[in-house]
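Chapter review: from sequence to fold.
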Amino acid sequence: MRFRLSASIFFLYLCGTAIGQVQFDAGSSWKYLKGSAAGSLPADWITSSFNDSGWNQGYAPFRYGDRQGGTLLGDMMNSYSTLYLRSSFNVFSADRIQNIIISTDYDDGFVIWINGTKVLSRNAPATLNPTSLATATHESGIPETYIIETAGIPLTDGTSIICIQAFNVTLNSSDFFFDLSIRAYLYLPEVPDTLSLTFDHESGFYENPFDLTVSTAETGYDLIYTIDGSNPQTSATVVRSSSDAVITVDPEISTGRPSTPVFIVRASLVAEGYSPSRPVTQSYIFLDKVRTQDHPGGDWPVSGALHNNFRTYGGISQDKTALPS
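The token string follows.
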């Protein structure tokens, strides 16, 4: 089993779409047992067969001397250094989950087991018992995120058990804190970009608006497209069509696109069980609008604008149209 740490994670999957298959939120409900009451705790407490009906129940974070909310352990200082936690989460399509993502906010150490298998530890001592201490100080406040491969974790569809032993660094420590969240995702394969999309007008220079038809000979696929330059795989402005898409290409159109002399169409194919294909992009440039363009608004740069430099544009018709589009 391998894992890697990321202080913060931004998911951008170019080759697939992520669909949540596990969701266990911070602030969730747990069964908990204080270290002072764990002297006779059997070794199987980390398994699903263990009966935790005699444990207390509370919501994370479990804490004292630090932050707000959750379950206050007002008797922990100078009394016990460990806390035992048990909860459960549901798993869907376990055989297709490659990683789980665990985010922990802790002070000072912990060990995590899933379905009886140890998956992660931080500042944990070599010997685990009710009086164990964390091996180093760690302040809470900034969650740490770990991406853990599932190859060594016995995940199955249905209910999984998560168990934690959390540690304070000293018996008289001024604070203690623990909370976590878990995520796992199922990744859909991307529609192959070998499947064809056809534009009935090629990219290039144009003088007049026209209707563009985007089509495919493939069956069982829908077309998705954008006209604002955004990626149709992820864009909030995407348009979906179950048949050929007819798009009016007109630089005067300002709804759903910036007011620029270049009309950009990006299209992909999508089907059930797949994420969209890599987009095909065509750009249509209207020369008369290039000569008279104004600032399109939004985040477009203002300084260095060329729209008033007619010496620059004087040779567009003669020279620029000869360039490959």
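Two observations follow directly from the output. Residues 179 and 203 are 54 Å apart (CA to CA). The chain has two domains: 3-189, 198-317.
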